[in-house]
Design goal:
Elements (H helix, E strand, L loop, with lengths): L1 H29 L10 H7 L3 H22 L2 H4 L2 H13 L2 H10 L3 H10 L11 H53 L5 H55 L11
Helix pairs in contact: 3-8, 3-9, 5-6, 5-9, 6-7, 7-8, 8-9
Length: 253
């Protein structure tokens, strides 16, 4: 009888243990996982505060100026190849009238510089008044470079301004976080708002400033190369007109 009682007691304890384990597994299976919060770009934009509006304006300005420079600061727009070839033919013949009319009918930086030089042509003076032509061409070339460089410099403005605004957002966000600490409210959820604003505005400023700086150097170097090419072409044509350079087939005076 004692053995039977002992075996029955063991079976009862084993059954109770299995029931407890099953209950715990059921609780685990019923509990639903907490869904993770997805953060969109709009959420980051709103977390950055009012300074993100300023950065948005800087980004729009950068895109607008970059598109303008892509369409205007290029060889096709500033120094057309066809125009240069036709001007060479007129300079060989010393046909100043038709050369000037061609410049007026084809507006570009190249034609502006060359037409300024053609206004100083005087065949009664030595070398067709070359010194005055070179001086007029140089002044016109400086004006053209300044006119285009004004737009290119806007990219430099945005490249400098955007990171500074981001830095201002960093300072404001850290100030808000320190204010929470000063009020003896050191809960992570309370400090997260200021820190998030600091990081978001910093990232936003860099995202705008880095492309702006790239486009600034890109178009500055392109403009410098085009202006240098126009200067060389203009100097060559003036030498042809003044008679210092003789091309094949050009008649002697």
């Amino acid at each position: 009888m004692n053995r039977r009682h002992s075996l029955l007691l063991i079976l009862c304890l084993l059954g109770y243990f299995l029931l407890q384990v099953s209950a715990q597994e059921a609780d685990v299976e019923v509990a639903e996982p907490v869904p993770e919060r997805t953060v969109s770009l709009l959420d980051y934009y709103q977390d950055g505060g009012w300074m993100m509006h300023v950065l948005l304006l800087c980004s729009v300005g950068t895109i607008a100026v970059a598109v303008y420079c892509f369409t205007q600061v290029n060889t096709k727009k500033m120094a057309p190849v066809a125009l240069a070839e036709n001007m060479t033919k007129y300079m060989e013949k010393r046909d100043v009238t038709h050369a000037y009319e061609l410049c007026q009918s084809n507006p570009s930086s190249y034609s502006e510089v060359l037409s300024s030089a053609l206004l100083k042509v005087n065949f009664d003076r030595d070398r067709a008044n070359k010194e005055s032509m070179m001086e007029a061409a140089g002044e016109a070339l400086d004006q053209e470079e300044t006119r285009y460089m004004l737009w290119v410099n806007y990219l430099n403005v945005f490249a400098t301004l955007a990171p500074m605004i981001g830095l201002l957002g960093t300072v404001v966000g850290m100030i808000e976080s320190f204010q929470q600490l000063e009020q003896a409210n050191s809960e992570p959820s309370q400090l997260a708002g200021g820190i998030r604003k600091a990081m978001v505005t910093t990232a936003g400023g860099l995202l705008v400033g880095i492309p702006s700086m790239f486009f600034y150097f890109f178009f500055r170097d392109r403009l410098t190369a085009i202006i240098s090419s126009i200067q060389k072409q203009t100097s060559f044509l003036i030498d042809v007109l003044s008679g210092e350079v003789k091309l094949s087939g050009q008649s002697e005076d």
